[in-house]
Fold this sequence. Notes:
Blueprint: E1 19-24, E2 41-46, E3 58-62, H1 66-75, E4 80-85, H2 91-99, E5 104-107, H3 111-127
Parallel strand pairs: 1-2, 1-3, 3-4, 4-5
Amino acid sequence: MTIVTLPQHSPAAATLDRIDVLLIAPAHRLSDLDRHLPATWMVTRRAEMPAGCREPDIVLLDDPGPRSVTAACLRHPAASIVAVLSPYSDHQAVVDVLEAGADACVRSSSAPVIAAHLEACRRRQAGA
Length: 128
């Protein structure tokens, strides 16, 4: 078996395109997320989904229910929707948010892990 290591992102290798991430979470959650994302990415934090903001590339929902996921899908149809659940969440909660329209579900509270999932979502968007 061959294991291939992907190159790490660096400021020089990062795309110059601005990527907007809308983070819907309480103020204390994921406060260091932007440190783990490329420099050209902008994280906008809101306690709830705002009306009339710039259309995000990715919407990150902290501990959403299925209705919140569906609302995000309807409000931001071009964005990837990523749900963050507790590492201890029930498997049915994961199924529920994915069936409600989330593109990905991360069962972790680690900012580096969540950032890696966001970058993977962006790569899938770029490849589509």
